[in-house]
Design goal:
The structure is a single chain. By secondary structure, this protein is an all-alpha fold. It has one domain. α3 packs antiparallel against α9 and α6 packs antiparallel against α7. The protein is globular and about 55 Å long.
Length: about 250
């Protein structure tokens, strides 16, 4: 069934929600092809290290994803206890959840390749010392990441900025994008699925405001996620930096 037929058979908020899901998937898939390739080429040409997407890390990706799934379940339970369990008033819930599961990894990977991959490497390349480069690149990429989400109040911007900092730390700590992509994907899915159940997916995808209490809880949970990933990386003896290739002169 084509995209036009699927969306044409659904109206109102669900139609807009599915449109957002597909549109985001297409756009971010383009980011994967363009910025991801450029980031890897840049790393080879200029000897950048610490931000490499190593396809040989499937086992690590599976392990960190498993830890983060548990983290997301616990975080969701805490949130449900504090704010109430999600309703089931949404239409076409199964279709929306399937689309979420299919498109969210593309969206998350595309954003991570662009922001924590290409932008981080481009900014970090201006610094001779790795640590100042990593700090400045993390701040810049987190700011760009938050701004890319469009109109938002200060608290929601701060929440996304902190997420960007945590993702940058995970890239720096693990030497690759895998943990950041996993965190981004699982975090988004854990937010989108309850919204789909309640029939408020379109509102969730176009969120522009967040209350202080929600942001504080989310930041705490993000810090817990960062701790868990760092613990797993240390336990697995994961190398923080990749090999440094001398820059061509």
């Amino acid at each position: 069934m084509s995209r036009r037929v699927i969306i044409g058979a659904i109206g109102g908020d669900d139609q807009r929600a599915i449109g957002h899901a597909f549109g985001g998937a297409v756009a971010k898939a383009g980011c994967i092809l363009l910025t991801g390739g450029e980031a890897l080429v840049t790393a080879q040409l200029y000897g950048l290290s610490g931000v490499n997407y190593d396809v040989r890390k499937q086992v690590w990706l599976a392990r960190v994803s498993g830890v983060l799934v548990v983290w997301a379940v616990v975080s969701s339970l805490v949130w449900f206890v504090l704010s109430g369990w999600p309703g089931t008033g949404g239409d076409h819930v199964l279709l929306l959840i399937v689309l979420c599961l299919l498109t969210t990894p593309l969206q998350a990977a595309g954003e991570e390749f662009l922001v924590r991959g290409w932008i981080t490497q481009s900014v970090g390349a201006w610094f001779a010392r790795p640590l100042p480069g990593a700090v400045v690149a993390g701040l810049v990429s987190a700011t760009v990441f938050a701004l890319l989400h469009g109109s938002q109040n200060l608290w929601l911007f701060g929440d996304r900025f902190v997420f960007g900092l945590v993702a940058s730390y995970l890239v720096w700590r693990t030497g690759g994008l895998e943990a950041a992509v996993a965190l981004h994907t699982i975090s988004n899915i854990s937010s989108i699925v309850p919204a789909a159940l309640e029939g408020s997916l379109d509102d969730a995808l176009t969120l522009t405001e967040a209350p202080v209490a929600t942001v504080v809880l989310d930041v705490v949970m993000l810090l817990v996620a960062a701790f868990l990933v760092a613990w797993l990386a240390r336990r697995d003896g994961l190398t923080r930096l990749g090999p440094v290739v001398p820059a061509s002169r």
